[in-house]
Amino acid sequence: MNDLLHHSWKQITALSERLAELTAQQAWEEVMALGKERHDAIVAHFERFPITADTIEFYQQNLPVLMTAEQTLREKTTGAHLEALEAGLAQQANRRAINSYHVVDNAR
User: Fold this and answer.
1) Which residue, among 41, 38, 31, has the nearest Cα to 16 in the 3D structure?
2) Residue range 70-93, pLDDT digits in tens
3) Quick one: angle between helices 2-24 and 28-48, nearest 10?
4) Residues 16, 70: Cα–Cα separation, whole Å
5) Is 44 domain-assigned?
6) Is 104 part of any domain?
């Protein structure tokens, strides 16, 4: 069981690392798909390897690392989301300004 536990955890870690890479690249569609895959992997992991007396030491060592990575990932995606929102608002403002210019220009 110990080898299976470690292998399953390494898969989650690898998915987390890839998710961080995709977030840095702002590959949002891939982030969404991989985020779901990672979530499903975590759920399946804990269904197969619940926290018990046999696994507690493993989780005491490894859960803090996962939680820290999760928080970092959340901060990156939130920051990227805000940047994308700001860029969209700026683009929308520019379109309004151009449309206003055309309206004034056509009125002459």
Assistant:
1) 38
2) 888 888 777 666 666 666 676 776
3) 160
4) 8
5) yes
6) no
